[in-house]
Specification:
The protein is α/β, with parallel strands linked by helices. It has helices at residues 25-35, 44-50, 79-85, 98-104; strands spanning 3-9, 13-16, 19-20, 39-43, 58-62, 73-76, 93-96, 110-116, 124-125, 134-142, 152-159. It has one domain (3-159): Dihydrofolate Reductase, subunit A (3-Layer(aba) Sandwich), CATH 3.40.430.10.
Length: 160
């Protein structure tokens, strides 16, 4: 099973200038809990925005740069090779960015999304979710609070 995991705004915004636009500690906490112990697959720009491999996860970076290296990470040149590198993990997670999400939509089994109930100015966007392909299987809604500035929902989709 391959899972795409992302935090997405109401207008499908993901980020701007290679950074997240919002800060939601509840999302970060849940992300850590869900991905711990798994392979996490991401593009080079997403990796560089993080700055280092995520602890207690196997980091796989996709880049066309054949000379690219990152300590403690597996580096490959395609999503297909990344999936193969994660073959021993029953549920690898795809972390983005936008182009990697676009490539992964046809092969993913699950979308695990945090929907931020706000529109943002962005330069990268999550692909449209086609309801003839994806079925919502769970949703939890949360109101903004003193730690989380925006209303948000944890929504899971499964391929039909």
């Amino acid at each position: 099973m391959v899972t795409i995991i992302a935090a997405v705004a109401k207008n499908n915004a993901l980020g701007k200038d290679n950074q997240l636009i919002w800060y939601l500690p509840a999302d970060l906490k849940r992300f850590k809990k869900v991905t711990l112990g798994h392979h996490v697959i991401m593009g080079r720009k997403t990796f560089e925005s993080l700055g280092k491999p995520l602890p207690n996860r196997t980091t796989i970076i996709i880049t066309r740069n054949k000379k690219y290296t990152a300590d403690g990470c597996i580096v490959v040149d395609s999503l297909n090779k990344a999936i193969k590198a994660a073959k021993d993990d029953e549920n690898p997670f795809i972390l983005g960015g936008a182009e990697i999400y676009r490539q992964a939509m046809p092969i993913a089994d699950v979308l695990d999304l945090t929907i931020v109930h706000q529109e943002f100015d962005a330069d990268v966007f999550f692909p449209e979710i086609d309801d003839t392909v994806w079925k919502e299987i769970s949703s939890e809604d949360f109101k903004a609070d003193d730690k989380n500035k925006y209303d948000y929902s944890f929504v899971k989709y499964q391929r039909i």
